[in-house]
Write a structure and sequence with these properties.
two-stranded antiparallel ribbon, about 120 residues, SH3 domain-containing protein, single chain, mainly beta
């Protein structure tokens, strides 16, 4: 078995660059790499907004929190499903995006898209 490592220029970001912006730059470069033996993350990429957005085990605000997103990062969305209606930041939406890299769901409210349901993303089965 061979260990692999990838180093990036994450520390070469301009002073004052937000974590989200730096993360997006690195992700844009690395998500297109063909790494032997690796399985690419499936899904469509979307920007997010809001800070400390919770990723939950199921599409409900009462579900266990499996992670928290930093402000303004890009996420891969594999599918979406109807879940609990969420009201936040002057919006309401019952659609939730499944994030395979995070192993859970986030409300579509915090996905940068003009519609409640994300375009081009299938429903979760």
């Amino acid at each position: 078995m061979t260990d692999r490592a990838l180093t990036t220029g994450g520390d070469l970001q301009p002073v004052g660059t937000s974590f989200g912006a730096a993360s997006n730059r690195v992700t844009t470069v690395t998500r297109g790499l063909a790494v032997p033996g690796a399985t690419p993350v499936g899904g469509s990429w979307f920007g997010t907004w809001g800070s400390a957005v919770r990723v939950r085990a199921t599409p409900s605000t009462s579900a266990a929190v499996v992670g928290t997103l930093p402000a303004g990062i890009d996420v891969a969305v594999r599918c979406q499903r109807l879940g609990e209606l969420v009201r936040a930041e002057g919006y309401e939406n019952a659609w939730w995006a499944y994030l395979p890299e995070r192993g859970g769901y986030m409300t579509n409210i915090y996905v940068s898209s003009p519609d409640n349901k994300l375009p081009g993303v299938p429903d979760c089965s």
